Amino acid sequence: MTEVGIDAIEIWTGKLKLDLAETFAPAKDEDPEKYTKGLGLESSSFPDVHEDIVTMGANAAKRLMERRGLEPADVGRIDVATESSFDNSKPVSTYIAGCLEQTFDGDFHHANKGERKFACVAGTQSIDDAYNWIKADRHRGRSALVIATDTALYARGDPGEATQGAGAVAMLISEDPDVAALSTEQGYGSADETDFLKPNQQFPSVDGKRSMQVYLARMREALTDFESVAWDTHPDDFAYIPFHTPFPGMVRKAGLLGYRHMIRDTEIEDELADQIGRQPREEEFDSWEAYEGAIREYMDDLKETEAYRDWYGRAIDPTLTIARNVGNWYTGSVHIARASALKNAAETGKKLSGEKLLVGSYGSGAQAEIHAETIRDGWRDEIGALNVDEQLDRRYDVSFEEYEEIHDVHNHDKETDVDSLTRPAGEFVFDGWGEMNERK
Ligand code: HMG
């Protein structure tokens, strides 16, 4: 059976950098370690005045198409995943296709274009749509372009403000892919939740603490559902486990939850029993409160064990490197986590072909999805071509006053007139409403 999956990846970061310890914390009169240690974030990427979800997505896609020698005729589908859309009718993919047609010979007139929305999980859902389209053999030999692009902004003063970010991830989904083949099995945890939502508003209304509980609850359900159709997951089955990363501190919690779930009924659980006592089981307790107390103590002990720390350092921590420096990219976030993992493997000389990833996507509202991916032989060349480190180094480091001005520029409710802080060249720029042009 032909494998289908991720054939190529490109990343485009917002060109401004907000340093959380040096710039944000002093202005907010907070201890910098709340951000660097507590949330696990060093800085966030921010869009300059001439950037938005269209330009970032188009710039990532342009780089991907140029690098892979693609023409519009090679692409039969453009799916954009975003929760920052500014148009309730025309999908962002049409704006991006319009940009790309300024650069490439030919057009996307025979490509199916759409926009996917389900908070941050929509990027993964778009990959699913492309996968299904290819597996159904409706693609006429063509590939799909999936672009996850967001400006993840919060109202100023909201606790989520420290986790902001902006950027795009473009992915080519093809037959016989170079980077990763997707499993046919998936697990879901999905429920109607209202902890994070934007009903006809640009910035989210968030119950931050509850949003973390909902994330973990849906992720646990998705893991259980995945195991019911795939196989029992064992922590050593996977080279890396990229999770949706609103901020690395959230993934510290997801990692612990995942590990506890995966070691149940394994030899690891037996080995750890001597150190921390047996893993509590819900059915053994008279009340939910008693069970919760026992679980909390067990988890506190579990995260201090050498076995857990080694596993976390190998399978989870390497997925967080880019996120630490860019913040939340919403739909792009889990795809940044995968790219971080593969970058880590390339930099440490790991052999990854044939190894598995377990990918945990999540979107508020709320839905978690778990699937496995098998790494393909072309992964090293593809990841080696990413220039994300250079892009991050080139970002303009904003002062707090500049940050506030730029935040206002991206606030749809405000009229502002501020110049770009960086000088765009060789990229698409936003030149006013409906005007996205290539700046040579
Ligand atoms: P907060 O309430 O200001 O922060 O905002 P806090 O007081 O809870 O502190 C955060 C952590 O820092 C805590 O660690 C503190 O102990 C620690 P924890 O106990 O959780 O491990 N801390 C310190 N550590 C060292 N030194 C210090 C210090 N001070 C505190 N001095 C909150 C946190 C998450 C609520 C906020 O950032 C927020 O509202 N964020 C937005 C919502 C969010 O990201 N939720 C995550 C799950 S939902 C999700 O992922 C979906 C999403 O991506 C959207 C979508 O799907 O579309 C958001």
TrEMBL record:
InterPro entries: HMG-CoA_Synthase-like, HMG_CoA_synt_C_dom, HMG_CoA_synth_N, Thiolase-like. GO terms for molecular function: hydroxymethylglutaryl-CoA synthase activity. Residues 195-411 form the Hydroxymethylglutaryl-coenzyme A synthase C-terminal domain. Its EC number is 2.3.3.10. GO terms for biological process: isoprenoid biosynthetic process. Gene3D superfamilies: 3.40.47.10. It comes from the Archaea. It is an enzyme of class 2 (transferase). Residues 3-175 form the Hydroxymethylglutaryl-coenzyme A synthase N-terminal domain. Coiled coil: none annotated. Keywords: Acyltransferase, Isoprene biosynthesis, Transferase. Belongs to the thiolase-like superfamily. HMG-CoA synthase family. This is Hydroxymethylglutaryl-CoA synthase. It comes from Halobium palmae. The gene is hmgB.
